[in-house]
Design a protein that fits this description.
The complex is a heterodimer of chains A (333) and B (425). Chain A has helices at 3-11, 13-18, 21-29, 32-46, 50-88, 92-120, 128-150, 156-172, 186-221, 225-228, 234-267, 275-293, 302-326. In chain A, 43% of the residues are buried. The two termini of chain A are 31 Å apart. Chain A folds into 2 domains: 9-177, no CATH class; 180-333, no CATH class. Helices cover 80% and strands 0% of the residues of chain A. Chain A is flat. Chain B is α/β, with parallel strands linked by helices. Chain B folds into 3 domains: 4-160, Glutamyl-tRNA reductase, N-terminal domain (Beta Polymerase, domain 2, 2-Layer Sandwich); 166-307, NAD(P)-binding Rossmann-like Domain (Rossmann fold), CATH 3.40.50.720; 347-417, no CATH class. Chain B has 16 helices and 10 strands. In chain B, α8 (193-204) links the parallel β5 and β6 (209-213). The radius of gyration of chain B is 32 Å and the shape is elongated. Chain B starts with a strand and ends in an 8-residue tail after the last helix. Classes of the chains: A mainly alpha (333), B alpha/beta (425). The A-B interface holds A 89-93, 215, 219-220, 222, 224, 226, 228-229, 231-236, 296-298, 300-303 and B 155-158, 161-162, 172-173, 175-179, 268, 271-274, 291, 294-295, 297, 299, 303, 306-307, 314, 321.
């Protein structure tokens, strides 16, 4: 392995930690074209012409990664269609097909993310594209884990549209890596990855809460209809929501801790006044509050679901308004 | 290989007649023995449930009017005059018999469309016949196919998923709210027949705990004893409401017994945990406004009846999907059966040709004196190779190509052409 490609991987501890780097390294080392592009990128970086080169490289990058992106899009779409079909007319073929397509989409999406990261020498969260795309990937992966644990596919038709929309938004946005202050190193990667994982878990809890409210309304109005018999029970939805929120809270707390330590190492202070940190702490407090309130007499049931939905609005606010206008450091995560 | 089916069911016979033609396990075994010992059938299987009595069989080869013989046997076995069964019996042969069995296993022929019990009954009937040695390759394959059909139809369609009885609908609704019931508690108010149906379903679904409350305590004791519940005295009515997750009421009375204020108090004491109330009483036992309380779900008899009607329609709508599965499985079975039949014909043909060839060579070579034994053996081998190439090898294709078999009209043409049947004993 060249020194250049090693640097790429040292920038991507997320991938090298969570996935199977040897397989990926092997498959990508075979691609001469990508290797060449990576080496040229390194040369331009060394000669201070990186910005100009990056624009040219982005076109080459697109031509190279578009097959993965298109294939990912296709697999997510087919998976969504099969999930919807399975919800309308349950069939073993559609159910298995939906899950298999989702696994395929996750694999392709991962390759698209990885290839892109190698080509532009940036981790997925260095720009809006990468951040959104990684969010979509983690959302789909979290859902898949949830499906495997609870053996319920009825939630899929509600999660997959979000995955697809975020994925499309990611590709609609301009891929322009902006290097934040040395955004490198495993600790930083853990910080960002765990935070995005927390957002994905909160997104799942949001979807589950919406389904809970819909199903609750149907049951109270005596209008279960065709799909009402196929959704998980209210009790199961509540438990799934709480599990997602707990995963999100744990992940966010760990991610924030990693962020504080990393900031201290870099700047000598744990917090430099970035409002994003305060907002994130408030989000964590809101979700911890939800887990307690959801078990109290006054809040259990539909009210807790409404609270969970409102909490997620707070996450969206943090991800969009705070990142865009208030934070000087956290741009895309 | 012919298949015959003679039977009657809830559509063709009255309950009195069905009772008289029903088979116990011992009778089913005895009937199978008699049918085989009398040479009527080679393979037999008796399917007897409260709604049907059916005799499946594979007749001896060359037997004539085996269905008629089975009908007569059925009447005599149950000590009935053949005329008693007139108009009540149905007869099916071959594909039609397979189709009938597969529909039965799928629950399409049941009184309650899509009911699951029949599949267990088919499985049990097959197990009994198999253990008794009454079945053979054809019925084994046919009943294994039927069990596969039943399983597929229930897995791949929704024909049996939605409840079509009021009592079961109430229990299924509870599962929509609480998930599995093995962690939930039910209070039954009223110990009548309707309550008993609900209790039966609740116990089947593994409800954790059951309490019964009734004005006449003996009835409550009886119901609770039969289903492993406990009895609550009527005086403790108010305090009993905070304990359950599900309340089923079915008592007679002009006024509701569960007022809004009582439920509101109970909900407060039980920390607003979800409460489902199923009101099966007419007039209603639960005051109308109770359903508006937070985290309560109230269903009365009309609500449940409407759900049942919707579910019946939904089950009807699943019939075409079930029929598609049945058709697929019939084709699979018929393909297998035709393959077996082709193998039998080819075996006969091979034997016939070998006999003819040997006779021909003996006759013709006896007049040629200058041939050595080695030459004669060589000629025999050549003849054998020739018949294999010209007749047997092409005929082997019959085994694998259903279309070819259809063109030969189920192989009868081949049998006639080579006089294969005429030499059978």
């Amino acid at each position: 392995m060249t020194g250049c490609s090693w640097q790429v991987f040292s920038d991507l501890p997320f991938f090298s930690v969570f996935f199977v780097p040897s397989v990926v390294k092997g498959s990508f080392a075979a691609s001469k074209k990508i290797k060449d592009l990576t080496q040229r990128t390194q040369r331009h970086r060394e000669h201070g012409e990186f910005e100009a080169w990056k624009r040219r490289a982005s076109l080459e990058f697109f031509l190279m990664t578009s097959p993965y992106v298109l294939a990912t899009l296709l697999f997510y779409s087919v998976s969504l269609a099969l999930y919807v079909w399975n919800l309308r007319e349950p069939s073993r073929v559609a159910g298995i097909g939906a899950t298999v397509c989702l696994i395929g989409a996750l694999g392709l999406h991962y390759l698209a993310l990885l290839e892109r990261s190698r080509l532009i020498h940036a981790v997925p969260y260095d720009d809006l594209f990468g951040s959104l795309s990684l969010f979509a990937w983690l959302l789909a992966a979290t859902y898949l884990v949830l499906e495997a644990i609870h053996r319920r596919q009825a939630v899929g038709p509600f999660v997959l549209p979000i995955v697809l929309v975020v994925f499309l938004l990611a590709h609609a946005s301009e891929a322009r890596p902006i290097k934040a202050p040395p955004a490198q190193g495993p600790l930083f990667a853990f910080h960002v990855t765990l935070n995005i994982l927390a957002y994905s878990a909160f997104a799942i809890s949001f979807v589950l809460s919406v389904i809970f409210l819909l199903q609750n309304r149907r049951l109270r109005d005596h209008k279960l209809g065709m799909v009402g018999w196929r959704f998980p029970a209210l009790d199961v939805l509540e438990r799934m929501t709480r599990s997602s929120v707990l995963i999100g809270c744990g992940s966010l707390a760990a991610g924030m801790t990693a962020g504080f330590i990393w900031a201290h190492r870099l700047q000598g202070v744990y917090w430099d006044g970035d409002p994003k940190v305060i907002v994130t702490i408030l989000i964590l407090a809101a979700y911890i509050g939800y887990t307690f309130l959801a078990q109290t007499a006054a809040w259990r049931g539909a009210r807790a679901s409404v609270l969970c939905i409102l909490n997620f609005m707070f996450v969206i606010f943090s991800y969009s308004i705070v990142n865009r206008y208030l934070s000087h450091f956290h741009r895309y995560f | 290989m012919e298949i015959v089916l003679i039977g009657l069911n809830h559509r063709t016979a009255t309950v009195e007649l069905r009772e008289r033609v029903a088979f116990s396990v011992e009778q089913a075994c005895e009937a199978a023995d008699q049918l085989r010992s009398r040479g009527i059938l080679d393979e037999t299987l008796v399917l007897s449930t409260c709604n049907r009595s059916e005799l499946y069989g594979v007749p001896r080869e060359l037997a004539t009017d085996s269905a008629g013989a089975v009908e007569l046997f059925l009447a005599s076995f149950h000590q009935l005059a053949p005329a008693d069964l007139n108009g009540s019996l149905y007869r099916h042969r071959d594909r039609s018999a397979v189709d009938h069995l597969f529909r039965v296993a799928a629950g399409l022929d049941s009184m309650l469309l899509g009911e699951a019990e029949i599949l267990g009954q088919v499985r049990e009937a097959y197990r009994i016949a198999l253990d008794h040695g009454a079945t053979g390759p054809v019925l084994n394959r046919m009943f294994q196919g039927a069990l596969e059909v039943g399983k597929r139809v229930r897995n791949e369609t929704e024909i049996g998923t939605r409840p079509v009885s009021v009592a079961f609908a109430g229990v299924k609704l509870a599962e929509r709210i609480f998930g599995k019931l093995n962690n939930h508690r039910a209070l039954i108010i009223g110990a009548g027949a309707t309550s008993e149906q609900v209790v039966r379903h609740l116990c089947d679904r593994g409800v954790k705990q059951l309490r019964v409350l009734n004005r006449t305590e003996e009835h409550a004791v009886d119901l609770a004893a039969r289903f492993g519940g406990e009895v609550i005295p009527w005086e403790n009515f108010a305090s009993a409401l905070e304990w359950p997750d599900l309340i089923v009421t079915s008592v007679s009375g002009a006024e509701p017994i569960l007022a809004r204020a009582a439920i509101e108090r109970a909900m407060g004491r039980r920390g607003n945990r979800a409460l489902l109330m199923i009101d099966l009483g007419v007039p209603r036992n639960v005051a109308a406004g109770v359903g508006d309380l937070y985290n309560t779900y109230l269903y009365n008899i009309d609500d449940l009846t409407e759900i049942v009607e919707q579910n019946k329609k939904a089950r009807q709508a699943e019939i075409p999907r079930a029929e598609t599965i049945i058709e697929e499985q019939i084709e699979k079975f018929m393909h297998w059966q035709a393959g077996v039949a082709a193998s039998a014909v080819l075996g006969d043909l091979r034997t016939k040709l070998a006999t003819e060839r040997e006779a021909f060579l003996r006759e013709r070579l006896s007049s040629i004196s200058d041939l050595s034994e080695r030459d004669r053996a060589q000629v025999a081998v050549l003849f054998e190779e020739f018949t294999d190439r010209v007749v047997l090898n092409p005929a082997e294709r019959l085994r694998g190509i259903p279309e070819l078999r259809r063109k030969l009209q189920n192989l009868e043409a081949l049998r006639d052409l080579f006089h294969l049947d005429r030499e059978k004993p």
